[in-house]
């Protein structure tokens, strides 16, 4: 029985109606707070993405700690979303909380280096094998800054991305393939420049397309996640990155790896764990324990090229960096998180639980003979509505089923379990327990039963 052929859509819709009614009945405080907030918040929420859940109105969080959070109505939840990776190492980890508490009386920002800056850069260099670093407030900014630096360093104006990618709010990357042609995404609001003039898009895992694009000689860099995650998980095929890196080097382009999600792969990210050698690397939201912060690093050679580009440019603002970048508060949080939270032991714990979760999901799916697959990337796990993981963005988009996703998500939430709202991704953190995994698997299986799958 598939998600498009054989699935009883009336059953899906009936279950969704029942779950929405249950949510409304159980969350009067969140409903009241949402109604009050709508009087002054655009779209009724502080950021419009907060409406992208399956709930009839936003769930208001009161407090969060470790692998759990509590809402305004007093209900407790086991979190498998963690702010879509922002709190991947748990909510309010004690070392980070202590560090920001200490820093709270010592100043927040001065547009000058703090004593934490050097040790943080040294630790990032150790983990990611890139010697030079800069900081930003988000991975979006870090990716944007890296693109500017690399265009300046290479003298080339184009960036190559993969179909279906997402690298934050960087306008350059909002280009997809439609009918085999590069097309600016219709969902991108307010963009007046034609992005396809400077952005090239190809399918992930397709080496001939990558080579053909690079052969034009105008690509400054390839910006990529080592495993695509934002359209569902798309793993690289065996040998893909070995061949792709050789092509990128041969044609004089540079490789930028965005590890914001794939930091789930280990203390040094997916690239370090799999022997990749990027020219630049970006790490964002989880690196400071949820405090807004990001970092980007360069190889020795690229750092020298970037410095030459800056020094040979006319004086004035570079357009790279913001006043609050590398502020004292964020650097204190990042240092504590790197030194005491993102440890080898924490990763070992998360990997073991993610394996338990992935195996349990596969078993539940197999019992019901569903043509679904499960992909695990370290502490990150996802189930998808296809017999095997997609190879590229077009395949990933084709297997998405938002109606089915929404009902599964709301069913879990109504039973105290939160997963990411955008697809079927689940994370574990150092505070997640085997019991939490078993609870998720039990409720997931019950949901499949309710759907008569």
From TrEMBL:
Cofactor annotation: pyridoxal 5'-phosphate
InterPro entries reported in the protein's UniProt record: Aminotrans_3, PyrdxlP-dep_Trfase, PyrdxlP-dep_Trfase_major, PyrdxlP-dep_Trfase_small
An annotated Gene Ontology molecular function: transaminase activity
Gene3D superfamilies xrefs: Aspartate Aminotransferase, domain 1, Type I PLP-dependent aspartate aminotransferase-like (Major domain)
Keywords in alphabetical order: Aminotransferase, Pyridoxal phosphate, Transferase
Family, as annotated: Belongs to the class-III pyridoxal-phosphate-dependent aminotransferase family.
PANTHER family reported for this sequence: GLUTAMATE-1-SEMIALDEHYDE 2,1-AMINOMUTASE (PTHR43713), GLUTAMATE-1-SEMIALDEHYDE 2,1-AMINOMUTASE 1, CHLOROPLASTIC-RELATED (PTHR43713:SF3)
Matches recorded under NCBIfam families: PRK07046.1
Name of this protein: Aspartate aminotransferase family protein
Species in which this protein is naturally found: Duganella callida
